[in-house]
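Intended use. Records like the one below are meant for learning the mapping from a protein sequence to its folded structure. Do not use them to infer anything beyond what is encoded.
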Amino acid sequence: MDIICHVENYKKFISIIQKHFSNKKGFELNVNKKEGTIVARFQGSFFPIEIFGQNIPTEKQNAFRHMLIEHQILIRKGKDFKNKIIELKLQGYKTEPAFAQLLGLEGDPYQALLEYQNN
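Structure written out for the chain above:
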């Protein structure tokens, strides 16, 4: 499960993440000051969780844009394509790399998916 957040106070956001999730299995926290991103990952009760924070409104963040593009692709490509994505995810692929592989996109799958929207 991916959770995207609009973060205005990075120190407070990091403190909240650490307070509530640092005891979770596999917890890791990555702060990229250059890109202004915070990513926390850990194992939830039933599936992996990733919390992504950036000082950009959520609907403008790439994670949200990816979700919209993926939804449009799934509608266009149909059930067989969706089942192939699910199979790749069960094999351990993250969502964007799974889409990129099935669509034959090269390079960084996250950027390639954003560019695919324009094709």
